[in-house]
Amino acid sequence: MLLKHDRYFYQRKVPLDLQPVVGFKKWRAPLGKDLDEAYDKLRDLKQQHDALINELVDAETRQDFKTKNRRQREEAQYHAEAQSDRAYDEWRRSQGLKTVDEEFKNTFPEYAGSPWRLARELVAGIEADRSRHLPPSANEVEDMRRVFDKISSLPRSQKPDRIKLPPYVVFKELAAELPEDVQSLIRFEERSPDPMDNDECFDRLTVVDLLPLESAILG
Questions:
Q1: Quick one: 206 exposed, middle or buried, by C-beta within 10 A (0-12, 13-18, 19+)?
Q2: According to DSSP H, which parts of the chain are helical?
Q3: Predicted pLDDT at 126
Q4: pLDDT value of position 162
Q5: Among 93-97, 150-154, 208-212, which is the least confidently predicted range?
Q6: How do the domains of the chain map onto residue ranges?
Q7: Tens-digit pLDDT profile for residues 120-159
Q8: Cα separations (Å) of 76 from 14, 86, 100, 174?
């Protein structure tokens, strides 16, 4: 139990082997100001987490829990990003600029009106992500170099706001060769990504399957 600013907080480290399953390193929860009530809440939380740790010993239960957690996080992230994207597009329109989607179609016209091609490339990307926990191959490094060359040639108004990359040495060396304005866009993640499990692969392939259909319906 922690005491901070006259309030009690529950904090407990998630077992190391369960952190990829739970999705974070520590359980945290406010317990209130009253000490007796705080102890009651702490006891309940401890019992809940003890029970969860025991349940996650079973491999199938662990995978189901991991998948459910990931889907909830992705749904929350999707809604947050969608709201942010709408606000950003409205601001761009107010400045007389194209939306991000319009800029993408203008910059990469080969994908415009070609949902099947985009779907094929997304599937190829998913297959590559199946080994995302491994250092990139020479071909993947060259692909990233071509992406950076494309971004470097764009006007500042068309460059992405941020580029997140896994912390592989080859990517850091590649980034060091870039112009400063492109380097400033790059953020390296704290650790290498976890391997993609079968449930996540299925979820992502399901989204790709719907792309051509969605394009046909929306025109």
A1: exposed
A2: 19-22, 35-55, 59-94, 100-107, 115-129, 138-153, 169-176, 180-183, 198-218
A3: 78
A4: 86
A5: 208-212
A6: 2-57, 98-218
A7: 777 777 777 777 777 888 888 898 888 888 888 888 888 8
A8: 22, 16, 21, 33
Tokens of 44: 């309940």
In the structure, what pLDDT confidence band is assigned to residue 208 with cuts at 50, 70 and 90? low
**125-128 LR contacts (CB < 8 Å, sep 24+):** 126/196, 126/201, 126/204, 126/205, 126/208
Kindly tell me the sign of the dihedral angle through the C-alpha atoms of 28, 31, 33, 38.
negative
Query: Quick count: other Cβ atoms within 10 Å of Cβ 31?
Result: 21
Please give the backbone phi and psi of residue 13, each rounded to the nearest 5 degrees, phi first. -75, 130
The sign of the torsion formed by the CA atoms of 59, 65, 69, 72 equals positive
The length of the chain in residues reads 219
Check: pTM over 0.70? Answer yes or no.
no
pLDDT in tens, 57-69: 999 999 999 999 8
